[in-house]
Design goal:
266 residues, 14% strand, binds nicotinamide-adenine-dinucleotide
Length: 266
């Protein structure tokens, strides 16, 4: 299946988890891929695995200049840019643990979250869109989260940053739709990536599995498949949308898992 032959993609946070699965999937579908990540070693390892159709570019999504250089490196190597997957986010447990509630939060945590998770995505668009316009169009996907759509007991900056990204994407879709650029977000449920596993552990995993309608938790490949669909011509008429790829986690009545567990006990 070569739906993306001739296309060039930049995937941020491309060295691990969802980003790495997306790089592999896009290459399998015929694209050339730039793996942008803070983790230079792992980005280079993945580029070695994928071969000449890929390029590793160490960068920091929290640094606008570095995002500009990432996009420039992609165009310098492959001559064009058609696809941007804005996907990098701070998943480090020592950061996420401090992203707690409005009374106790340290504003450095808030600001850093927004610098990487939101401004980093805006910068990706700022520097990628002119190249897409030159190529006659393009497709942008941003990784949002179920946390964008519901309240939770912690991680206020993360949730607010993902909500910001979800609506920012609609603005991009609206502003550039007539010029052939589509923009969508994907809201994953619990995906068993390294980042996901660092932050959701122990009893929490069962609670989340109990609240997932599918019989298993999510895999990075589930998200990669949705990205590949959205950036291919199969998704040509889909723009300005948020697609939940969450095994139905947000689709059911709030009492669903309590009810199942209660009836199992009867
Ligand atoms: N795993 C889940 O359950 C889940 C659920 C909802 C949303 N998400 C979202 O999916 C995306 C990918 O997360 P993942 O689960 O694959 O995590 P991951 O930790 O496996 O991968 C994240 C990658 O981003 C990179 N990164 C972090 N900060 C960066 C920065 N400042 N600049 C450049 N790269 C940076 C990391 O080095 C890492 O390679 C994130 O946007 C996350 O919010 C994940």
């Amino acid at each position: 299946m070569e739906r993306l032959s001739g296309k060039v993609a930049v995937v941020t946070g491309g060295a691990s988890g969802i980003g790495a699965a997306t790089c592999r999937r896009l290459v399998r579908e015929g694209a050339r891929v730039v793996i942008g990540d803070l983790d230079a070693l792992r980005a280079h390892e993945l580029a070695k695995e994928l071969g000449d159709v890929s390029l590793a570019v160490p960068f920091d999504a929290g640094d606008v200049k570095s995002v500009e250089e990432l996009i420039a490196a992609a165009v310098a190597r492959f001559g064009r840019l058609d696809i941007l997957h804005n996907n990098a986010a701070i998943m480090a447990n020592e950061h996420i643990k401090r992203d707690n509630n409005p009374v106790d939060i340290d504003f450095d945590v808030w600001d850093k979250t927004f610098a990487v998770n939101v401004r980093g995505y805006v910068a990706g668009c700022k520097y990628a869109i002119p190249h897409m316009l030159k190529a006659g169009g393009g497709a942008i996907v941003m990784t949002s989260s179920g946390s964008a759509h519901r309240g939770d007991l912690s991680n206020i900056a993360y949730g607010a940053s993902k909500a910001a990204v979800t609506n920012f994407a609609r603005y991009v879709a609206t502003i550039y739709g007539k010029q052939g650029i589509r923009c969508n977000t994907i809201s994953p449920g619990l995906i068993r990536t390294e980042g996901g596993q660092k932050n959701v552990q122990g009893a929490m995993v069962k609670v989340m599995a109990d609240n997932t309608l599918a019989p298993r938790l999510g895999l990075p490949e589930d998200i990669a498949a949705a990205v590949a669909y959205l950036v291919s011509d199969d998704g040509a008429f889909v723009t300005g949308q948020d697609i939940a790829v969450d095994g139905g986690m947000l689709a059911h009545m709030p009492y669903y898992s309590d009810f199942l567990n209660a009836t199992a006990a009867w």
